Amino acid sequence: MNALMTQVRRLTLFETLLLAGLLLLAAFLALPIVFIVNHAFKPYNEMFQFPPTFLVREPTLSNFYDLFLRSSASIVPFSRYLFNSLIVSAATLAAVIVSSSMAAYVLSKYRFSLKKAVMAMIMLSLMFAPETVAIPRYLIISWLNINNTYFGHVLPFIASPVAVFLMKQFVDQIPNELVEAAKVEGASEVRIFLRIVMPLAMPALATIAIITFQSVWSDGQSSTLFMQDETMKTLPYYIMTLTSGVNAVAGQGMAAAAGLLMFLPNLVIFLFAQKRIMETMVHSGVK
Amino acid sequence: MASVSFRHVFKTYRSEKKPSVDDFNLEIADGEFLVLVGPSGCGKTTTLRMLSGLEDISDGEIYIGDRYINYVSPKDRDIAMVFQNYALYPNLTVYENMALGLKLRKTAKHEIDMRVKKAARILEITNYLDKKPGQLSGGQKQRVALGRAIVREPKVFLMDEPLSNLDAKLRAQTRAELIRLHRELGTTTVYVTHDQTEAMTMGTRIVVMKDGVIQQADTPQRIYRHPANLFVAGFIGSPAMNFIEGGIAESEGRMYFNNKRLRLRIPESFYPSLREAPSLRSVVLGIRPEHIVSDPAWLQHFDNKVSALIDIKELMGADTYLYLNVGETNLVARVDDAEDGFELKSAVEVGFQMEKAHFFDAATGANLSADSLRGQP
Q1: Region B71-90: what's the mean pLDDT?
Q2: Which residue ranges run through the membrane (chain A) (predicted)?
């Protein structure tokens, strides 16, 4: 306590103002999170109150109850969507980490012809919005005949230019001499990649993991376009249906509860990985 | 331990027309400490990397011992390499860093432990074995990197400017340690540097390179005393050798070096070799700073005296460097500190120890003096 007091007293006026300003800013940026949490526990009457309230007055679990139990009475239960989402997210995460880290290692540490062309293509593909490639993606998925499979969910995400780019920037920072020293020492390529490069690239791995997870976890497009079978669709798609059409009003409570559930994994992952993510952003010059 | 042999080795990068290493021929004896020295871009590091296997060989053959190793992968060449930036694995402890190579070669655990601890004792890094490289200073890191090479007990050590990242004091200290280490282990070592002091102090033999071509390969002393050409003469030695352009003319059976300001008599010992030279009209006289004398007691014995203007005076402690001006020619002389009284902008009489001088062909750069090593690669 004493130590804390002396610490506070040493702040100059400017630092105090800065601290206060930053705290205010942080509080402001935290508002959406506070809202999501509060909204999920609001009973119906509070949800549609005018003027709207920010904080919940009489918290209730009825939204969650509706989401888990009542919707389970429908043809496909909520748990099936959740299960699909978990499977797809986990598989995509693994696939993206493996493919982009290997691609980044080769692009960063190997000399081969057409390397620049490959890099240019990856950069180019960063420019396309997902909507613009929806039709080609659909054609490829149906040509491969992987509609209504988990692979159909995962495949479009595996080629992740952002992940490759971030990883490559990070692996570039690892001195070539480390790789060369390992080669002279007698390490195989696989071993160099797994034991030397990957441990050093952990911050970048954490970053691409969270970026990928966020986009997969909240992606409803692949369910809409490539999955005709209802049992193969994922959580984001289900949440969209909660508030669409006849459910526009009745589904609001469940949507609020689902919104919180969708948000929580992102929050948890970020809290665990935030230090690593900051490192990557600093290293790669991306802000 | 083993000898190393380069036979007509070339390296040409795809994007470049001129080879980076051009017809490199060299026999390195078992146990030798060979230093490759030259300015940056002279091909010395490329040569080392070809020997290590990190770089392909465009043409020619390399042998370690009797073994032809052009297509042998780096890990099977039985070499250990020390890099300029240490290249320690930051996620492993010092011990693990040193043990990795042995572990990959499936050495028995107790053997690894024994060798790592022995190397740590030699290099005095026993106290840091459990630390990560990030916690060490530059000098300590470089010892660990050396330790990693030593524990492998390879046939050849390859060192790529290992001291360049250290500060001057530590560099001198580590230099001495490397010499001691080589004496103790006796392992063939190929050492790359751009620092001629390192080359002179460490090498049992020096190879001076320029533009991918060997200029001269010989012991430090012979390279200093008998440089094969203008480039070697200018590169080795600090301060650098003085060069004076002019011509050699013979009159009444005596040879003189002439230019606008100077007329210096050439000692008779040079005559036979100079008479063999294709042309003496355009030559460069090379004389080291320590062979320009200003001591009056000495000067009276000299024929070749000249009056010069003191431009700059550098006090180095034991020596003083005088930057002299003789007409359009600038010279550096090394004089004893004891000889005080060199006033700036004042005239001083200096003498040339001509028997220590060199004469180079101005066009080809070749050393025309007899005792130099013409015919060497």
Answers
A1: 92
A2: 12-37, 81-107, 119-144, 150-171, 192-217, 254-273
